[in-house]
Design goal:
mainly beta; Neuraminidase; 2 domains; five-stranded antiparallel beta sheet; 37 strands
Length: about 500
């Protein structure tokens, strides 16, 4: 064993050491809050490579093993940054840095004018070639390919335009380079799809395998179940979301709306009411969000409110929605609010607020409790579940929050059962991201007994890089999980002329 829970390993060119990244604490979710460590190649005591950033990732060695180049960021991990490593997502706010292994301050690498166009979806370094070029991965649409960028002799700037190395249509999720600059890389096909987990009448049991919900789309997310066998969900194609409604009995599907969100799953959402007659959805255009409703048969959409966050729950009676909203001061994210939204008037009132991480609110069927997830600080890698009494006036202070789970694991996305006596959630408490539940007393707002597993996802399908969104219905759970298939390929990086 070289490093338990280590990630992104890279041997130094002299073969003496290994660099890797590691979350400081916590488990499970592939968060971007990572630190770089070094360990002898044959094992031994690890040392942290000090970078001065909240998050440092994808370290690569210089050809003489004297420096490390890495992506550094002062932003915490967020649920919207769900892809990790080389999966093609943006590492928001990050830049490339280089620092001596022996110690010393990092130097930010200044991008060339041509390289600056890559920065909106920040590329991840893969290898530092002996020709003083950096091999990196870059995502464009549904594909991720390998490119090379040339470093200046003083390692402080990118010089000239990057050159594309691979031209495939899949996603390159990892790569490694030999001393002769042969590149071995993995092309991974992974799309979240909807899966049906039946709930037995006497309680959930982890027996049968989940069944795929067959649709005409290969990227389906944000499932929401009504009491009448209707399923609302979002399907992504070419960075565009569409809102669909499926009748689970007949299999009939209806396209309801096109949803603005820039291909980002955390800028959109979809929720159907209990009767299956109305669907609410969130759009985000140029950082401005809005919540709309549309009839299950289609037709014009009705705007409920603007600048009120992302809808995350709809009351059993249909008159109240809950949303989560990030609060910014300038470009700095400073807090998160959970809002109560009156559907008829669109009036928004703040129910909960905290200057850290506060997400995934769900309203109990009796309308008395709000379940949500929280972490102690922005930099924490663990999260726990709470409930708070519902309020239509002043925000509920943290002193009145009731813990449902302990701050030991990554417990997330609590959702009440239809009778309000069970809270379902995802957790990594067994080393995998699986579906768990805890019994709940609606009279006291406290958990009854210990959490228990509902469904394990230790094989395929399983949660890999997309957050496992799910919905609880009267007799089933629909959850978005990935099936991952990967092949290895090899190519040669040509000499620079």
């Amino acid at each position: 064993m070289l490093a338990q829970e280590g990630n992104q390993p890279r041997y130094s060119p002299d073969g003496q050491r290994l660099s890797f990244t590691l979350r400081d604490t916590g488990h499970g979710q592939r968060a971007l809050n990572t630190a770089v460590f070094l360990v002898p190649a044959e094992g031994g005591e690890r040392t942290e490579f000090r970078t001065g950033f909240l998050s440092s990732s994808t370290p690569v060695w210089s050809p003489d093993a004297s420096h490390l180049l890495y992506a550094g960021s002062d932003l915490p991990s967020a649920s919207e940054t769900v892809h990790f490593q080389l999966s093609g997502a943006s590492l928001g706010g990050a830049s490339w840095y280089v620092a001596p292994v022996s110690g010393g301050p990092p130097v930010r690498i200044e991008p060339s004018a041509q390289f600056a166009s890559f920065l909106p979806a920040f590329p991840f370094p893969v290898a530092w070639l002996r020709t003083n070029r950096i091999l990196f991965s870059y995502a464009s649409g549904d594909t991720t390919n390998l490119w090379v960028a040339t470093l200046s002799p003083d390692n402080r700037r990118i010089v000239g335009p990057p050159q594309q190395v691979t031209f495939g249509t899949g996603r390159i999720t990892d790569a490694s380079v030999t001393s002769s600059e042969a590149v071995v890389f993995a092309i991974t096909a992974s799309r979240p799809r909807l899966w049906d987990v039946p709930l037995e009448k006497r309680g959930p049991r982890d027996k049968s395998d989940p069944m795929a919900v067959v649709t005409n789309h290969d990227f389906t997310y944000w499932p929401s179940l009504s009491d009448t066998g209707k399923l609302a969900y979002l399907a992504l194609k070419s960075d565009k979301f569409n809102l669909w409604l499926r009748d689970l009995a007949s299999g009939k599907e209806t396209l309801l709306a096109s949803v603005e969100g820039g291909g980002n799953i955390n800028r959109v959402s979809a929720y159907i009411d209990r009767t299956g007659t109305q669907v609410a959805y969130t759009t985000t255009l140029e950082s401005k969000s809005a919540i709309y409703t549309i009839g299950a048969g289609g037709g014009p959409s009705e705007r409920i409110c603007e600048e009120c966050g992302q809808v995350r729950s709809w009351s059993a009676a249909g008159g109240v929605m809950l949303s989560q909203e990030r609060v910014f001061e300038g470009s700095k994210w400073v807090s998160v609010r959970i809002n109560r939204i009156d559907v008829a008037s669109g009036r928004k009132t703040v129910l909960l607020e905290k200057r850290s991480f506060l997400f995934s609110p769900d309203l109990s069927p009796d309308g008395q409790w709000v379940a949500f997830q929280d972490r102690a600080t922005l930099a924490d890698r663990r999260e726990q579940l709470f409930v708070a009494p519902m309020s239509d006036g002043a925000p509920v202070e943290p002193e009145r929050w009731i813990p449902i789970t302990e701050l030991k694991y990554f417990d997330a996305n609590p959702i009440f059962s239809r009778d309000g006596k069970i809270l379902y959630f995802t957790s990594d408490r067994d080393g995998f991201t699986c579906l768990w539940a805890v019994r709940f007393n609606p009279a006291t707002g406290k958990p009854v007994g210990d959490p228990y597993p509902v469904k394990h996802f230790h094989g395929s399908p399983r949660h890999y890089s997309w957050y496992p969104a799910f919905s609880v219905g009267p007799d089933r759970i629909i959850i978005s999980l990935e099936q991952v298939q990967s092949d290895l390929w090899m190519t040669q990086v040509t000499e620079e002329k």
